[in-house]
Amino acid sequence: MNQTRYAVVAKDLLEGISSGRYPVGTLLPTEFELCELYDVSRHTVRAAITQLQNQGLVSRRKRVGTRVEASTPKGGYSQSLASVSDLVHLAETQVRSIQSVHHFVADIALAKRLGLEPGEHYFCVSSIRVDQENLHAPLCWTDVYAQDIYSEVIELAEQHPDELIAALIEQHYGRHIEVVDQQVRAVLLTPGIAKSLNAETGSPGLNIIRQYRDEEGGLMVVSETVHPEDRFTLVTQMKREKSTSA
Predict the structure, then answer these.
(1) Which of 18, 37, 68 is the last residue of a domain?
(2) How far apart are CA 174 and CA 176, in angstroms?
(3) d(Cα 134, Cα 99) in Å, to the nearest integer?
(4) Boundaries of domain holding 15
(5) How far apart are CA 58 and CA 70, in angstroms?
(6) What is the pLDDT of residues 107-127, one digit of tens each?
(7) In whole angstroms, what is the distance from residue 72 CA to residue 41 CA?
(8) Any idea what the CATH number is for the domain that residue 31 is in?
């Protein structure tokens, strides 16, 4: 698979950090300077910096810039989804039941947590997913976020409960998902989510945030899914990057 533009930028910045070209404690060039340096869009630069931030290499502060925090990624490995097709296939084995839809303007806290743009208009489709063979134990609660310009997809999501909303946006608006960035963390089920999933409040769960991006690194859709710990196992494959020797 060819690397996306933002992955190429992120890799070069990573090499610059690890080699000392951008020492720990200093600031990376500004977004504008990086756009000129790599001849890419701001979307691409922001996606690259987000990848570095997720690895604990940099931090971002408004009116300060992007500061180098570490010279090597946390853990030393990076992992990715095998393919977008795997996600599409997963959706086809389940049925989405929409619980609510709301439109909103992203505040700073939500934008920071999910990677949205503060002040932009979005909609959120909240749903549960169930396996046809076990309707009494929903698999997960999912909130899907997208810009209001894609709001026509809400009706399509109701008509096609076995298709990803991200895939419906691809089909309806002619956009292409190139990569999906994924963050996984352990959580405790809140009372509301536990009730909807017929699970115990405070029991362990798995929270997965997925950011669906186009080839420029532009954010198309964000989903946040919560699974009870006994209903979903995430299996990934990680490969060590081959070292090059002279």
Answers:
(1) 68
(2) 7
(3) 18
(4) 5-68
(5) 7
(6) 999 999 999 999 999 999 999
(7) 26
(8) 1.10.10.10
